[in-house]
Amino acid sequence: MKRREMLALSAAVLAAPSVVRAQGTAGARSLLRFVPQADLALLDPVFNTALVTRNHAMMVYDQLYGLDESYEPRPQLAAGHVIEDEGRRWRITLREGITFHDGTPIRAADAIASIARWSQADVLGQNIRAITEEMVVVSDRVFDIRLRRPFPLLAAALAKPSSFCPVMQERLARNPPSTQVTEIVGSGPFRWVAADRMAGVRAAYERFEGYVPRDEPPSFLAGGKRAHLDRVEWHTLPDASTAAAALQQGEVDWWEQPTPDLLPLLRRNRNIRLEVKDRTGSMSMIRFNHLQPPFDNPAIRRAFLPGIRQADYMTAVMGEDRALWTDRCGFFLPGSPLATEAGLEAMDGAPDHERVKRNLEAAGYRGERVVFVVPTDNARLNAMSEIAGDMLRRSGVNLDYQTGDWGTIAGRLTNRGPLEQGGWSVWCNTIPGIIATSPATQSYLRGPGRAGTYGWPDLPRIEALRDRFMDAEDPAEQKRLAEALQRQAFEDIPYLPTGAFTQPTAFRAAVTGMLNGFPIFHNIRKG
Q1: Is 153 helix (H, G, I), strand (E, B) or coil?
Q2: DSSP states of 495-518 as a string?
Q3: Strands 89-94, 142-147: parallel, antiparallel or unpaired by DSSP?
Q4: Distance (Å, whole) CA 176 – CA 180
Q5: Sheet of 78-84: strands edge to edge?
Q6: Residues 232, 204: contact at Cβ < 8 Å?
Q7: Alpha-carbon distance 53 to 30, whole Å?
Q8: Cα torsion at 483, 489, 494, 497 (round to 10°)?
Q9: Cβ contacts of residue 318 below 8 Å, gap of 6+?
Q10: CB proximity list for 58: less than 8 A, separation 6 or greater
Q11: Rounded to whole angstroms, how far apart are CA atoms 38 and 44?
């Protein structure tokens, strides 16, 4: 720790000028400087579901519905809805006076186009799309969603906090989800300042004076979203010591993900607060590309189970404080109602690299090259990748360990082609714990093939069990099906689970009003 303190203090001298010069012209009391988990490389949350993109998009876009702190969906841009025709028609009415950042009103046609675009990309949205007969404009503020059969979870799906449905202008939402929207005309409490963007350095936002918040107290992504800050700047500081020094010196106000080795140093500073705001935390994984050999073979994916000791990954990500992590994690969020330890025995006693070698040989692995893509500027993904890479090498895998910045890796993950065409084999990832509380929203457990998320597993048994879960109404039956899903997942291996953790966030004591959840910038004041 002495060495870290010395590095942090030295870095403060070097880091302060560059941050101060970039801070813009807003008054100090209305400017908040934030250090995100990675540089903001991609801006469209439908095109790319990275959490840094999600956090950005939640500032500049709004949702028809938002989750409150109890994880219940509440109308947001919607004034409300009426369900008719035995659950097969939802008539949704938009609030009066809501506009986009360019001053144009938000219309029913914008909402329909936004849902249509999102539902092509999101795996839960695809379920809705499959049962939607039509979406019809009734008036500028009213539209109908007509379903072939009832879908009670529609509001919850539109309120999803990750891989979410942003309301965009119709002209922009008409872009296919495979084409990134780079013109950011949102409807949220902050507007994107494109002219102040410096790739790899800074992103900037200003308060949208035309935003009309709901007349309700704020609650996570629901209620009144009131922006008290004139300007928010995101400063990319990949080096943890530099970020810690900048926070200690007051050159930045908020560091999203302080590294565990620096937490004791930050706790000793009376001007800094350390709190776990996102109580559901994150779940981590090793994700395979199921389209390409060798991981198109489930026996080869399954061969690695004896090589996974979740405690190794959690220690690398969050340090020795077991209050921040658990190494008893399956495919649902530990501690949530549907969580189960079914199948976890497959990783008991790990890591056993010799056993993995034998498993690989029996499964038919013949030394095929495996491309592991690693974003080195994301501390937690880089740390997990080092553990996973060592496990793969010790297990006899012909590993091609390719590193890059997050923007490069994020763009590459969309490539479904073979390795010779820039494809990939495996990467480490985290997902928000909140989406893993139910098979309805656990998108990385899904197996719809090319219609799914990065990795594109085709797992018909998992899909069949999930369909049964979606039709089940009895909680005991839902619990039984969740357990069956997890047991099947340990056979099919959509990914290798490597643990669950909560991440303290660090901010200056002058920052108040921070809401629970991932980084949310409305309701915050800076004293």
Answers
A1: coil
A2: EEEEEEE---EEEETTEE-PPSSS
A3: antiparallel
A4: 8
A5: 78-84, 89-94, 142-147, 132-139
A6: yes
A7: 24
A8: 70
A9: 260, 324, 325, 501, 503
A10: 161, 164, 188, 221, 518, 520
A11: 16
Q: Looking at residue 66, what DSSP letter applies?
A: E
Dihedral of alpha carbons 514, 515, 521, 525, sign: negative
Residue 400, token pair as written in the block: 């091609």
Q: How many CA atoms lie within 13 A of 261 on its CB side?
A: 16
Q: Which two tokens mark 322? A: 């077991």
Structure token pair of residue 102: 């360019």
Q: What pTM value is reported for the model? A: 0.90
The Cα 466–Cα 241 span in angstroms is: 44
Cis peptide before 150 (omega within 30 of 0): no
Residue pair 254/520 in contact by the 8 Å Cβ criterion: no
Rounded to the nearest angstrom, the gap between the alpha carbon of residue 128 and the centroid of all alpha carbons in its chain is 21
Assign 407 to helix, strand or coil: helix
3-state secondary structure of 323: helix
Backbone conformation region of residue 109, classed left if phi is above 0, alpha if psi is from -120 to 50, else beta: alpha
* pLDDT tens sequence for the chain (527 residues): 333 343 343 344 333 444 534 444 444 459 999 999 999 999 999 999 999 999 999 999 999 999 999 999 999 999 999 999 999 999 999 999 999 999 999 999 999 999 999 999 999 999 999 999 999 999 999 999 999 999 999 999 999 999 999 999 999 999 999 999 999 999 999 999 999 999 999 999 999 999 999 999 999 999 999 999 999 999 999 999 999 999 999 999 999 999 999 999 999 999 999 999 999 999 999 999 999 999 999 999 999 999 999 999 999 999 999 999 999 999 999 999 999 999 999 999 879 999 999 999 999 999 999 999 999 999 999 999 999 999 999 999 999 999 999 989 998 999 999 999 999 999 999 999 999 999 999 999 999 999 999 999 999 999 999 999 999 989 999 999 999 999 999 999 999 999 999 999 999 999 999 999 999 999 999 98
Q: Are 300 and 294 in contact (CB under 8 A)?
A: yes
If one counts every other C-beta atom within 10 angstroms of the C-beta of residue 446, the result is: 23
Q: How far are the Cα atoms of 22, 185, 204, 256 from residue 234, in angstroms, in the given order?
A: 10, 19, 6, 10
Residue at token pair 């979410």: 164
